[in-house]
Structure formats: structure tokens, C-alpha cells
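Regression test case RT-17, inverse folding.

Input:
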């Protein structure tokens, strides 16, 4: 059955075997051509293999079958980000957040797309929404910390970096940011 092939493909995805996953998503789609989730996941397998055009086509097919497929829109946005098509990425992420207003990762990606367009105000709003949905969202905390750092609001940036670190203490990048910012504040206090 299509569902059986789909489930096998998902297991291959979890094992980081995108070639095997792709084969099974294709089998699921042969049986059920309107299987939106299979098209979406097939797009992710294509992306993993470096076939970005095929991935984008698969995500677009998923949204043509299921126009409210938030995950496919988010994945589409990520492909556009890779190609630096930030306007298209913003539109895709906005569709993802429209269809799933609790999709923190899509809001986070939307914020990053706005940053790439130098739209700090909209980026800030997107990151605020991430943290409204999930106050412990590590990437959202990190991105909010980065925004405050860019604005020379170092104490605020440390607060966000520290909270991100508390939620992901194994993340060496977060530890380095926290230590760097704390050292910078200590130097400012000596002046």
C-alpha cells in the first residue's frame, strides 16, 4: 500500500539513507499520485541528495495537491533561501505560517529571510512570534540574541544566548557566544 511505502521511506529518512527513502516515496506516489505528504517528503530526499530543482518541484506538487500544506511551503522557502531568492522565500514562509500559525520553525526561517533582506523590523516580529509559540526555541533565542547584538544591546543579547544555552547546553556555538558576550560586558564595565 502507499502508506506502507511511505512509512518505510520515513524510516530510511531517519537512518539518513535518502536514496532508499526516495525509492519508497516514488513507490507510494505510483500507488497514490495525490499523496501530498509523500511528495513533500520526496522533496526533502531530493534536497538531501542535492537535487534542488527536483526538490522544489516535489514541494510545489505537494502544495498543488494540498494547498494548506504548511510543511511543503516551509521546505519550499528553504530551497529559495539556498538560492538566495529571499522574496520568494518570504512568500513561502508566510504561506507556511498562514496555514499553521503555531509553526515556530517557519517563523524562525521567515525572520532569517527578512534579515537577509535587511528588514530588521519584520525579522524582529518573526523572532518574537517564534518565542511566543515556544519560549525555549533555541534557534529563535539565538536569532533574537543576534538581533540585539547587532543593535549593541549586549545585556539583552546575553539574556537570549544564556537561555538558548540552558536549553541546549551541549551546543558549543551557544557556549562560545555566551562567553564572548560576557567577556565583552566585563570589558565595558572596566572602562
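Golden output:
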Amino acid at each position: 500500500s502507499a502508506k506502507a511505502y511511505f512509512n518505510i521511506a520515513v524510516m530510511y529518512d531517519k537512518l539518513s539513507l535518502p536514496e532508499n527513502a526516495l525509492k519508497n516515496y516514488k513507490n507510494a506516489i505510483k500507488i497514490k499520485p495525490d499523496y501530498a505528504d509523500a511528495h513533500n517528503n520526496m522533496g526533502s530526499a531530493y534536497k538531501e541528495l542535492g537535487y534542488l530543482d527536483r526538490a522544489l518541484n516535489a514541494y510545489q506538487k505537494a502544495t498543488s495537491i494540498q494547498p494548506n500544506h504548511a510543511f511543503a511551503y516551509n521546505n519550499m522557502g528553504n530551497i529559495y533561501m539556498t538560492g538566495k531568492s529571499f522574496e520568494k522565500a518570504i512568500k513561502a514562509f508566510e504561506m507556511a505560517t498562514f496555514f499553521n500559525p503555531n509553526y515556530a520553525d517557519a517563523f524562525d526561517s521567515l525572520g532569517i529571510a527578512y534579515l537577509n533582506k535587511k528588514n530588521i523590523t519584520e525579522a524582529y516580529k518573526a523572532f518574537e512570534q517564534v518565542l511566543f509559540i515556544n519560549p525555549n526555541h533555541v534557534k529563535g533565542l539565538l536569532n533574537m540574541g543576534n538581533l540585539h547584538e547587532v543593535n549593541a544591546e549586549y545585556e539583552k543579547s546575553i539574556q537570549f544566548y544564556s537561555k538558548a544555552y540552558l536549553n541546549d547546553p551541549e551546543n558549543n556555538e551557544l557556549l562560545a557566544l555566551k562567553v564572548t558576550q560576557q567577556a565583552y560586558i566585563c570589558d565595558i564595565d572596566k572602562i
